[in-house]
Amino acid sequence: MKKIYSPKSLLFISLSFLVIMIASCKKDKQSIPPSVVPIATPTQLGLYETDSSIYKLLLIAVSKIGNKSVDYGFVFDTGSGGMVIDADGILPASMISSSGFTFTEDSTVVDGITITNQTSIVQYGDDNATTDKVYGNLAYAPVTIGDQNGNIVIKRLPFFIYYKAVDGKGVKFDAHEFDTFGVSQEYDISFSNNAFVTSPFSYFDPGNGLTKGFKMAALDTVNFSLDATYVPGVITLGLTAADLSSSSGFTMSQLNFVAGDGYAPLIPATITYNNKSTTSYVVFDTGTEPYSYIEDKKAANTLVLLPAKSAVKVMTTAGFNYSFTTSDTENLTNVENPTTSGADVSIISLEFFLNNEYMLDYTNHKLGLKNN
Questions:
Q1: Contact present, 16 and 24 (Cβ < 8 Å)
Q2: Which partner from 37, 243, 284, 317 sits 20 to 30 angstroms from 167, CA to CA?
Q3: Distance from C-alpha of 68 to C-alpha of 91, rounded to nearest angstrom
Q4: How far apart are CA 355 and CA 351, in angstroms?
Q5: What's the CATH fold of domain 43-216?
């Protein structure tokens, strides 16, 4: 983050000497110019791009939680809000059980991390058949987002620390498999004391003259690798007036506040595929890959994969258009009936972000999309 310097105001004093018997002096009256705080420079962070040959994944580093240095890659997720981390390796093993954390007070502090007795469950999945559950507690700590390649520090970040993650059949997942960095301004996890967990970026002050939020550059495909390639400057924190102007090329959609849920990144759209058309709320989601999901109330009650060479077009009510064609390996797209799936929101996967730009304005609660 660029340090901000304030120019010093100088007072000039003029002395006049009269050499007639007595020397005298006076100060010339001059106005003092006001201190001007310069416009801050946006802060950039890099992401790690990985490809298992089955699906691509976008990761962001977190290198310190409380007083504890860590080395974890979190799934960078535009489809959820809040940092979610496994307690394994963060808290002493003696504190962690399959039924919760073991401490007796309202809260306890370990290595600068405050764990409260406020519990919740977060669910992940595209439909009823793929719902996984993560169990944990509300926690607070200073957190360093990023690593030696560039980072920011949030002095007191609320986040969700979990002791157990299971699939729909109750089978436990491996440690840290659900570590997630949700950047939307929704309240993915809320608690009985009215506390909630939302985007870590929303707690970052970008500096004078900048609007709180971020924009995301198009990823391309060249950097995705099995070893996770670090790509600098993917995320720009702090939006300028030029970013938010109508000439920026971004199509902005207003997000609506829902009590208890915040500002979910849902925007209304019409989706056309294979000469069929349906209306649905849409999420552009970096955390979903390799499939996109179209919810259609007229669809069959079973999940149907669109055949290769299917043309899909998404047109938002704000006027943004996105089109793609499915293949045997890319832009894989399922169609499902929301009555059966239990989810009435269509999901556009990580493939969108390869060639398009994305923006979230936290101050004005707007979502921006841009064809690149």
A1: yes
A2: 284
A3: 10
A4: 8
A5: Cathepsin D, subunit A; domain 1 (2.40.70)
